[in-house]
Structure to design on (572 residues):
């Protein structure tokens, strides 16, 4: 008997009778509900015929006499001796080795379950309450199979952004006469609460775990034509996506994936999943000296832009590099202030000349009381900043705000063509702080940015949002933390992708409400993503596209398998 853990769709063994009881609630090992999770004891004896099919992580139901259901998850299982027996002996072992058959009846199989809520019938579905009532000793235990039971039991919203299908140990649960997977969706309505995308989303996973595949599939849903978000003034607009792209993979979203054949198209339409190239895709390419950008795998429109040095006026961290200390940062800020107050052409070259002037040095030392060594250190640092990233012959970022942010449009900022990691940081920080400051300010640099629902996507986010001691890192963290806190109100969502979640500054990490955890093997990474214990053990064993979704304001933490197919082009 298959008890609710089914193969991916298309295989023939799906849909066996899951409504039969597989065991009964046992009292002998203790039957106890407690407000302290550690004291809760809920066990079932599993009958011999059903034992081979039970799995950790499976969802089981226990009916109450009047019809409500206790929804549970298997968290432990154990064989115990049926009779008083010591099989850890030489004689028993020889017997076992000589005899190939195993007598289930000589043992009992006990499952320990974690209660996840009580389901009461209401109309076609169920309402869910806290697990505050003990089931009866001997009550029949069966596998949760009906999609309504599982969705209600895990408190998964009926509608919202599609992330994937509910799974147990990597296998999508498919049930019903026509086997149907259960979709996992992220709440996307204004009431109650806010669309959860504006409380931020993180995709974490090891190299090759399928992060970018998953990210593109989620972004494709955000860019579905009917998607609208309500702004503070009541206007409803499609979101704009600005995606930083270190590997030159996201502009491919302009194109269909040829693997989505007519079969897939029908299935996706039935599931209510958006697919196909995003027609409004623009690659906005940072110009850096003579370096050229060669699009790979896409023919989306490209447009060059440059970062005006004037952006550093209020954002000294753009040119602070990694290791300016607090004092040096302070000095840089005051130098920039004086420079911008007097400069006729506020370019980087002019600033370097300004720093080199004896008069500047004298003023800094005498009037601003900057220590000589501090001054020299700052000048050294600033001279080392790659200069051909500012004020290049291309339209400047603030002038392009209408191209950068378009309701319903995807803007990709490729950085692959920039070999120097300092240059990449300047680009990502300049563009993201331009967006964030415009969102949060009451007199924004760009009204377009302020007034459009916006998702800022960042692949390899650990490279830009790492925790570090330097003044630059601290400023960046403060900026992003504030963005994350205000995101809900301003309709600004952070969409972070990383293989090293442990490197992301804790202040930012804490603000991320939805975590999609793909395969991770690194201990520190697993510790940081901090999924509930009942699911955590599976993290190193997750297959490609399989993840734990931990989104406390959306549902119980649950294992979800993303679509095996890329909804837009991914890969060459
Ligand atoms: N759910 C999936 N089903 C099938 N194939 C997948 C799935 N997810 C990803 N792949 C394939 O696996 C490979 C790696 O996927 P992807 O590029 O998304 O990984 P990644 O985690 O972003 O890797 P990297 O660490 O290199 O950025 C790609 O060839 C992709 O097509
Ligand atoms: Mg990737």
């Amino acid at each position: 008997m298959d008890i609710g853990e089914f193969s991916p769709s298309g295989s023939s063994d799906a849909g066996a009778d899951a409504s039969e009881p597989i065991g009964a609630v046992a009292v002998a090992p203790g039957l106890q509900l407690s407000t302290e999770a550690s004291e809760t004891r809920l066990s079932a004896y599993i009958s011999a015929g059903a034992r081979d099919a039970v799995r950790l992580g499976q969802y089981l139901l226990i009916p109450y006499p009047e019809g409500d259901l206790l929804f549970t998850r298997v968290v432990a299982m154990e064989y115990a001796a049926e009779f008083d027996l010591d099989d850890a002996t030489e004689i028993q072992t020889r017997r076992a080795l000589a005899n190939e058959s195993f007598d289930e009846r000589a043992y009992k199989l006990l499952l320990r379950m974690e209660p996840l809520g009580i389901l009461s019938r209401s109309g076609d579905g169920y309402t869910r309450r806290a697990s505050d009532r003990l089931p009866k000793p001997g009550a029949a235990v069966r596998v949760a199979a009906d999609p309504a039971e599982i969705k209600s039991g895990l408190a998964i919203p009926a509608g919202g952004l599609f992330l994937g299908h509910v799974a147990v140990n990597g296998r999508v649960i498919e049930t019903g006469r026509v086997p149907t997977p259960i979709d996992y969706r992220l709440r996307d309505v204004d009431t109650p609460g806010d669309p959860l995308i504006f409380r931020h989303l993180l995709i974490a996973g090891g190299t090759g775990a399928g992060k970018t595949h998953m990210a593109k599939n989620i972004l494709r849903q955000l860019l579905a034509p009917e998607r609208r978000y309500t702004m503070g003034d009541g206007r409803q607009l499609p979101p704009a996506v600005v995606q930083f792209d270190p590997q030159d993979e996201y502009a491919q979203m302009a194109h269909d994936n040829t693997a989505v054949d007519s079969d897939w198209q029908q299935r996706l339409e039935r599931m209510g999943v958006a697919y196909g190239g995003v027609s409004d895709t623009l690659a906005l390419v940072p110009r850096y000296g003579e370096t050229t950008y060669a699009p790979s795998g896409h023919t989306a429109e490209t447009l060059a832009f440059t970062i005006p040095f004037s952006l550093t006026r209020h954002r000294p961290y753009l040119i602070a590099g990694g290791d300016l200390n607090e004092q040096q940062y302070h000095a840089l800020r005051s130098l920039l202030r004086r420079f911008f107050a007097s400069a006729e052409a506020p370019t980087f070259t002019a600033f370097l000349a300004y720093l080199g002037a004896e008069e500047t040095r004298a003023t800094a030392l005498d009037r601003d009381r900057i220590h000589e060594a501090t001054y020299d250190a700052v000048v050294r640092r600033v001279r080392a900043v790659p200069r051909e990233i500012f004020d290049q012959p291309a339209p400047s970022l603030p002038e392009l705000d209408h191209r950068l942010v378009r309701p319903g449009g995807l803007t990709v900022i490729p950085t692959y063509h920039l070999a120097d990691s300092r240059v990449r940081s300047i680009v990502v920080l300049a563009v993201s702080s331009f967006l964030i400051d415009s969102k949060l300010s009451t007199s924004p640099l760009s009204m377009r940015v302020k007034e459009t629902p916006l998702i800022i996507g960042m692949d390899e986010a650990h490279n830009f949002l790492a925790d570090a001691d330097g003044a630059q890192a601290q400023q960046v963290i403060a900026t992003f933390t504030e963005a994350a806190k205000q995101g809900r109100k301003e309709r600004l969502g952070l969409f972070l992708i990383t293989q090293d979640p442990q490197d992301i500054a804790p202040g930012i990490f804490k603000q991320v409400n939805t975590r999609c955890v793909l395969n991770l093997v690194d201990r520190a990474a697993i510790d940081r993503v901090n999924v509930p214990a009942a699911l955590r053990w599976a993290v190193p064993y997750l297959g490609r596209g399989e993840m734990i979704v931990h989104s406390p304001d959306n549902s119980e933490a649950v294992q979800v398998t993303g679509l095996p197919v890329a909804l837009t082009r991914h890969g060459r």
